[in-house]
Amino acid sequence: MDVLVDFSRTGRIGPLTCGMSLADAEDLLGPGRPHPAHMMKGPDIDGYPYFWGGLQLVTTRRVVSGIGIGLRPGSTVRLPPLVLPDSESFEATVLREELIAALDGAGCRHVVNGVLTFDEQSGILTRPADVCAVFGLPGRDDRVPHPDRHYLDVIHKHTA
pTM of the predicted model, to two decimals? Predict the structure, then answer.
């Protein structure tokens, strides 16, 4: 939860920030697993992520233009040691209410993201970092204690 709250407050994950070069990020994290579009079109294609487990960095002109952590309720997410120093993985089951309470406890302001709130999905946008958290109902096969409540699916920041 600390990683999610710190990211929500600052828009950074440790030393990772939008605007840094992909080369600098790979120096810190090791080589990422590129999206298949990078392999088909080459490394200069924009808007596709590189992955390090559940961490993704989207690039534009080889500069990090987006940072995100993907979660699947009922599963475990793997993150690089730079992001999660004490462990490589953590429980990916985060209720909307739990993240909201943690943000409130840390004094991190947030507003409803009306664009991403509809049907069985909801979103918030943190201030001033502009980090977006998207929540949804779990899938039929997701093993969660409350199948009728919203869980965090992804938390991300994009600059371009």
Answer: 0.90
For 32-53, the pLDDT digits (tens) are 888 767 667 767 777 878 899 8
Three-state SS for 35? coil
Helix (H) or strand (E) holding 40: helix 36-41
Cα distances (angstroms) measured from residue 145 to each of 44, 49, 120, 123, 138: 43, 31, 18, 21, 10
Backbone angles phi, psi at 5, to 5 degrees: -70, -45
- CA distance linking residue 39 with residue 50, whole number of Å: 11
- The helix (run of H) or strand (run of E) holding residue 23 is helix 22-29
What is the predicted pLDDT for the residue at 38?
Answer: 65
Residue 52 parent element (H or E): strand 49-52
